[in-house]
Amino acid sequence: MTGVTLQDSPAAPAPHPRPAGRAARCAVAALALAGTAWAVRAVWHLRLSLAGEPASGPPDQGGGTHRPLNALEDSYHQVASLGSAVTAVCAVVFLFWLDRVRDNARVLSGTQPRYGSFWLLLGWVVPVANLWIPRGVVADVHRSVFPERRLPAVVNWWWGLWLAGLAGSAGIIYSDGTDEIIARAYSGVLPLLAADLFVVAAAAAAALMVRTLTAAQQEHIARAGY
Q1: Residue 13 lies in a domain
Q2: 2 within a domain of the structure (yes/no)
Q3: How many CB atoms lie under 10 A from the CB of residue 125?
Q4: Of 21, 58, 97, 147, which one has the fewest beta carbons inside 10 Å?
Q5: For the chain, what is the domain count?
């Protein structure tokens, strides 16, 4: 009986990291737009405070009754809606960048990420877990590739400012509607302005963080000869 020699099937090519520069530039641009949107929001909070509450009272009169909005209040609704839309787009672009550099870190380090892929989204919305997991996902991107290096300080600055904005009275996530925020601006604007400034500062720190982590990873990819 004639034997049949089976040739070994060719091995699958080793995965290569993908360029992250474009994703980083898009993320930085989106963060700049989001920061600008929240700065504009802060200006409107201040304008509402300086204008003072109308004699007719706040927009929400209670008992399901809402009075007609004046021109300034109506413009604030538009500013708030635009800011929310810009923030949503920024979140998508930021997560796209994070997914790209996270995948590259897996290829470069040869290890699986500390947090599973589902945490990339759920980590931002699950109560209590959202206080540390998103930072952990970002930190793991750097530490898995550069275990000998200290985590860049900008990561902690970004996360601290983000949490401060999140906890603020008009932070990224809040339960009150736009009319309730208008009433707060009339009665006490300082907490709103503080929250706005924290969000703007967090956006700026996030942009610097994106540039810092991407540059380090791209330098490592170039040295490795990919």
Answers
A1: no
A2: no
A3: 10
A4: 147
A5: 1
Sort residue 183 into left (φ over 0), alpha (ψ -120 to 50) or beta.
Answer: alpha
Q: How far is CA 143 from CA 8, 114, 187, 201, in A?
A: 37, 10, 46, 24
pTM here is: 0.87
In degrees to the nearest 10, what's the CA dihedral of 131, 134, 135, 141?
160
The set of residues, in sequence order, having a beta carbon less than 8 Å from that of 180 and lying 6+ positions away, is 60
**108/15 Cα distance (integer angstroms):** 9
132-150 core/surface letters (b: 16 or more CB in 10 A; e: else) = ebbbbbbbbbbbbbbeeee
Instruction: Output the six-digit token pair for 153.
Output: 């300080």
| Residue 3 covered by a domain | no
Q: Over the stretch 50-74, which tens digit does the pLDDT of each residue have?
A: 999 999 888 988 887 888 999 999 9
What is the number of helices (H) and of strands (E) in the chain? 7, 2
Structural domain span for residue 121: 21-56+67-224
